[in-house]
């Protein structure tokens, strides 16, 4: 397998982007990434998108987006793994470059979520759960994650304040991110008194509905300096894994075992462990998810992530900064784009180009992107060469 | 890149399978393939499916189907390229094995199309076209392919009888296929007098709405004999390509340029040309599609495929047998499964196991699977080792 590098990244400010369609959003991010890399051709592309069929009545995004980007007849394929679709697109592109089949591969993610009613968005998102055994019984994602939160509180004594601190910390970071949907600080009180969605989760525990896209350009590491003037960032580890799709089939609600399996593979490939990761972007679709995930990644012992968050250990200035971008909570969660947006943040930090939210001296970062209530997960480890 | 072989195939009889759900269909075909290969583990899997969101309200098939197949925590990913989703799953699995990342990769396709009304199926299928510029103006796929047929007739003098002969020939083959949805012979008169759908295309020019799945097991060629008792079939060429998604953006309605580009790549990888292909499975979603495709593949000069079909050259006993399985027309077209179903037929023929429809002495076959009105295409060349 050839070593693979990221040589370009592109995004736009995420939000409720009424004036732009899915194809506009993707092409905008793709052109930004192509310009950033300075490449003159693309050999193949992958698009992560969760449900364009339900959100905008459009499937076949490979053809549509290659067409609108003006790169036909290159191969172009949509991949889908619910909210992990973007990370899976990065993994698919990584494998294609590593295989030797293609040299310059564009990997992107996109979702246009605001063209349906809020009920339509809730229905579309619920298709990431087990339709027959969860959704038809009335489960939605806030409800599923609320059960995880209840179980976690009961077992480990997590307080409501500790949980809220995840949102406070991520908004502290997102307030410094020009691409964030909600770049505003949030007080603990604002989280604690926001509208109840699914007890104990309140509105400010939940990531928002977002339109957006993100794109990265991959190439073989040994061609990076010839193809681009950007300092290459190596993808040193990749891992993906699955778990039972339905929460009720899991042995342990609070152990995200797909994340455990995916990061084990990524750590092994990169030859490092969790202690060698300087910072990470993780899938905080709900505040409780961030706590379970940073334990599954081995950053903190089981049951301690709430205390660690409260103590500031996951803050930008802490010993393991988590979601320097603002995370899904503040940056936004255009589901298919989220995993590529994480890669955008890692590369930005590793280039030392994160401005006011830059973590000094970072050399290695990890991105964890998951689908549904954890039924699929993909992990990437990126590092300065 | 490592050489890749197919060591197992599985399918069920396709049709209107009211008593089985999508997950049942996929797992049935997967277990058949695993049993056929005789493997004891799967390292990774890809699922081609066009629109489970619109057909059954379920996305996240990677997690769902890995779960129901009992193979968690392996990586599992859905890929989508409209009706070419199945072929794209095979290509994705090919790349993963070729890269060295995984050894035993399960690639499958599935679609459950009969759980919505016929209007719902037409809407879901139309999402393979350009929603904003074709579908919202009233275009459906029979209408789009009817325009291709009209243009072809005008330019090349194709007769209605020649076009109908495609369906007659494919039903002659499908009548001998135990997995076919409509395993019955069809007379020229029956095609010519069937209900008009979109002039000049009649009902018997159109592939049906179908439930079904198909699965193949891939591994490195040099491990095939150790992993399986089946004679390995080598995937010697793979090519994928895109074209403008909307028909009105193409320079030439009758030239399927994504098929031209995809087969060029596959021929180059395999080191052969169209004259070295003994037989092929092609994407006859409508009779006119088969004619355009076998010209794009270089089997017949432009404008002559109708005459060649009428003269029996594409019959099972002709010099270039096309769609020995019965094609989409007779075997059925569960869209996401179709491309893997084509691989099932190639492997069956190359093993000499096709029974009454066996083409004697075949050593090399080609599968062509396309999405929409030709906006994406994937081609595989398989051969006896």
Provide keyphrases for this structure.
homodimer; 385 residues; alpha/beta; Peroxisomal Thiolase, Chain A, domain 1; 2 domains; 9-stranded mixed sheet; two-stranded antiparallel sheet; 11 strands; 38% helix
Topology:
Two copies of one chain form a homodimer.
Chain A: E1 4-11, H1 22-37, E2 44-48, H2 52-56, H3 61-69, E3 76-80, H4 85-99, E4 105-111, H5 118-126, H6 141-156, H7 160-174, H8 188-192, E5 196-198, E6 201-202, E7 212-220, H9 224-227, E8 233-242, H10 257-270, E9 279-281, H11 287-296, H12 305-310, H13 327-331, H14 335-350, E10 364-371, E11 376-384
Parallel strand pairs in A: 2-3, 2-4, 9-10
Antiparallel strand pairs in A: 1-7, 1-8, 4-7, 5-6, 8-11, 10-11
Write up what this structure looks like.
The structure is a homodimer of 385-residue chains. With 385 residues, the first copy, chain A, is an alpha/beta fold. Helices cover 38% and strands 18% of the residues of chain A. Chain A has 14 helices and eleven strands. In chain A, the strands form two sheets. In chain A, strands 3-2-4-7-1-8-11-10-9 form a nine-stranded mixed sheet, with helices on both faces. Chain A has a two-stranded antiparallel sheet with strand order 5-6.
What does the main sheet of chain A amount to? Answer: 9 strands, mixed
Nearest-angstrom radius of gyration of chain A? 19 Å
Q: How many helix segments of chain A?
A: 14
Domain count of chain A: the total is 2
Q: What is the CATH class name of the largest domain in chain A?
A: Alpha Beta
- Please name the two chains that share the biggest interface, counting residues whose Cβ lies under 8 Å from a Cβ on the partner chain: A-B, 66 and 65 residues
* Strand elements of chain A, count: 11
- Counting helices, strands and paired strands, the structural category of chain A is alpha/beta
* CATH 4th-level superfamily of the largest domain in chain A: Thiolase/Chalcone synthase
| Run of helices and strands of chain A | EHEHHEHEHHHHEEEHEHEHHHHEE
> Residue ranges of chain A: pLDDT <50 for 5 or more in a row?
none
């Amino acid at each position: 397998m050839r070593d693979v590098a990221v040589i370009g990244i592109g995004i736009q400010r995420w939000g409720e982007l009424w004036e732009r369609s899915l194809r506009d959003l993707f092409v905008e991010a793709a052109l930004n990434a192509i310009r950033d890399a300075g490449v003159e051709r693309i050999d193949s592309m992958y698009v992560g998108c969760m449900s364009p069929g339900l959100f905008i009545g459009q499937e076949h995004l490979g053809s549509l987006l290659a067409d609108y980007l003006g790169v036909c007849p290159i191969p172009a394929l949509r991949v889908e793994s619910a909210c992990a679709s973007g990370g899976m697109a990065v993994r698919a592109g990584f494998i294609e470059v590593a295989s030797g089949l293609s040299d310059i591969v564009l990997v992107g993610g996109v979702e246009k979520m605001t063209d349906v009613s809020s009920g339509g968005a809730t229905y579309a998102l619920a298709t990431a759960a087990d339709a027959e055994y969860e959704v038809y019984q009335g489960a939605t994602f806030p409800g599923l994650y609320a059960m995880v939160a209840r179980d976690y509180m009961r077992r480990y004594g997590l307080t409501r304040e500790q949980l809220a601190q995840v949102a406070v910390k991520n908004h502290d970071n997102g307030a410094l991110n020009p691409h964030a949907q909600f770049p505003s600080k949030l007080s603990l009180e604002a989280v604690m008194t926001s509208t109840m969605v699914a007890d104990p989760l309140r509105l400010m525990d939940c990531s928002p509905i977002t339109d957006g896209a993100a794109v990265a350009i991959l190439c073989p590491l040994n061609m990076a300096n010839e193809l681009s003037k950007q300092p290459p960032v190596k993808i040193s580890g990749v891992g993906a894994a699955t778990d039972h799709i339905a929460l009720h089939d899991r042995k342990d609600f609070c152990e995200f075992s797909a994340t455990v399996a995916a990061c084990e593979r990524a750590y092994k490939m990169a030859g490092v462990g969790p202690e060698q990761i300087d910072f990470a972007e993780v899938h905080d679709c709900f505040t409780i998810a961030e706590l379970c995930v940073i334990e599954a990644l081995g950053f903190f012992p089981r049951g301690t992530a709430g205390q660690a968050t409260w103590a500031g250990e996951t803050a930008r200035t802490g010993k393991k900064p988590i979601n320097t971008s603002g995370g899904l909570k503040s940056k936004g969660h255009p589901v298919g784009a989220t995993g590529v947006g994480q890669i955008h943040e890692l590369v930005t930090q590793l280039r030392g180009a994160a401005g006011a939210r830059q973590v000094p001296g970072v050399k290695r970062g990890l991105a964890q992107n998951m689908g549904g209530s954890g039924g699929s997960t993909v992990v990437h480890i990126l590092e300065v060469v």
